[in-house]
Every structure is written in C-alpha cells, then in structure tokens.
Amino acid sequence: MNKLCLILCSKYDFSVDLVIQELEKTGIDYIRLNKEDLSNYLINIDPVKKVLTVKGHGKNRTVSNITSVWFRQPVFIRNAPAYPLSLEEQLVRSQWAAFLRGLIVFEDAIWMNWPSSTYSAESKPYQLMLASKVGFMVPKTMIGNDSSYFEKFDEEIIVKSLDTVLLREGEDCLFTYTSNITAKELNEENTKIAPLTVQEYVYPKTDIRVTVVGEKLHAVKITSAGRGIDNDWRLLKKEEIEYIDIGLPKLISRYCKDIVSEMGLKFGAIDLIESNGNYYFIEINPTGEWGWLSTEKRPIEKDIANVLAG
C-alpha cells in the first residue's frame, strides 16, 4: 500500500514547502489542504468507511490509506480578521473547523499532532505543571487577576499574557510580548480586568530554543553580540540575533523529550532559559515555527518528513 500524508496548513507557511520537498524526494504521496482555500474544493469524508474525497483545482482524489496527518495549525483559532465577519463567513469558519476536527476518524494514522493533544498542550498552566512533573526547574509562577498574590514576588518580575494575544484596532495588528517590570507596578486597577502570568525574573539568562521531532532534538542558544538577551529576544531586529548550536546536558534533553511524550505530541518547540548553569522551562508550542532555524546542521524539515513517512 502506498503511503499518503494529509497536510492541514496555511498557503503562506513556507515551512510546509520545505517538508513537501522532502516528501517528494522520498516518493511519499501527499494532499495539501490550505485553510484559506477549503471552500474552493469539494471535500467529503465517509466517517464509517474512513474515506476522504477531494476534488477541484487539479485534484481528484479518493483515499483511505492515510498514513499520516500533519495538523500544522490549529485552524482559525488565532485569526483576528481586520473586519467584522459576515454571517456567512462565521458559518464557513465554524463548520470547516469542525470538519477538520472530524478528520480524527483517521485514528490509525500518525498525527503530528493529534488535535486534542495540540489544544491541551497550548495551555500554559498545564505546560508548567507537566514540566515540573518530568523534572524541569520552573520559575516561580502565579497566574490570575488578584494583585495581592503578585506582591509576594521579588521586586523584578516577568509579566506575560496567558495565551497568545493577537488584536486588531482599525487597520493595526497588535501583539503582546513578555515584559520585565517591578512587582509594585501591578495593582488591582490594572490586573483585575483579566488574568495574566507573573513569574520571577531569572537573571542573568540565555534563551534556548529546543525543537523536538520524534526522537530527534535540535537545540540553539539565542544571543546578541555573543551575549544573552535581557528582555524578549523577539523585539530585536533579525540581524541582531544569533542562533548557535549547543549540546544540552543529557538530563535536560531527556526532560525535553519526556514532556513532548507526556503531552502526546510528535513535535514540540520548547523555550528554555539557562542561568548560572541551571536550566528553566519557560513554555512549549505544539505548532511552533522552526523554518528560521533550519540549516544543513539542523535539518528539521527532514526529521518531520521522516516521521510523516511512517
């Protein structure tokens, strides 16, 4: 039986293009469905016989031999349109999202990652609990909207959103980043409206990104001018950032693989920080970006293609 990979993604995701090139090199068949184009196709599933049919734009496929499913994005979860959605657009989004979730009828396929595992893995409190469970050091953390608990932290703290924030105001797209402030800046007036995450400020620090794909692991430290970055490194210009390959202590590598396994994932992008020889877990993204890290030394697209190939 020929192998076939079903890819659920965005047409703007160049990382998917890299993986598809690897699948083509090894002769693995695939069907790519971009979330922006779903209504341009005729797509059906027979949930009992486990058969998928896709027609349109040069495709005319009826398949039941799905070897793997790459659930690249939690479809529509974080889309914040610049305009109010019409009733039709709301219907389209909700029903296609439900349809894609329904693809779990292909339960025997290799999923990267299984949808329910992806959704639970996006919970920051759940991440921190599991990280501590597998052995990671975790910064002292409090999540909520009661500022009286935040007063118990040392003077310098880290403040960040509980989930990815993507807002629109007029034509502007707004994001939030991790901020380093003092605990006394938080009070009932500015925290009661919504919960937030407060953590102890670990300093000095070096940011580390660990990409886990199956049993493969790639780790880089993120620096600027050869030094750790005090604040959120994503605020720096691209040309100011360095990604340097590093080897992790065996125990930390094991923790990274363990938390991915505990979450039921095949892929995870993990953020750590190193401070005075200690490694702290910060977060994991089950659909994290990695294209900007891929090199000959870090062939992440090949690792992903190998898992999807079964």
UniProtKB/TrEMBL annotation:
Gene3D superfamilies: ATP-grasp fold, B domain (3.30.470.20). GO terms for biological process: SOS response. It comes from the Bacteria. This is RimK-like protein. PANTHER family: BETA-CITRYLGLUTAMATE SYNTHASE B-RELATED, RIBOSOMAL PROTEIN S6 MODIFICATION PROTEIN. Signal peptide: none annotated. One of its GO terms (molecular function) is ribosomal S6-glutamic acid ligase activity. It comes from Halomonas campaniensis. One of its GO terms (cellular component) is cytoplasm.
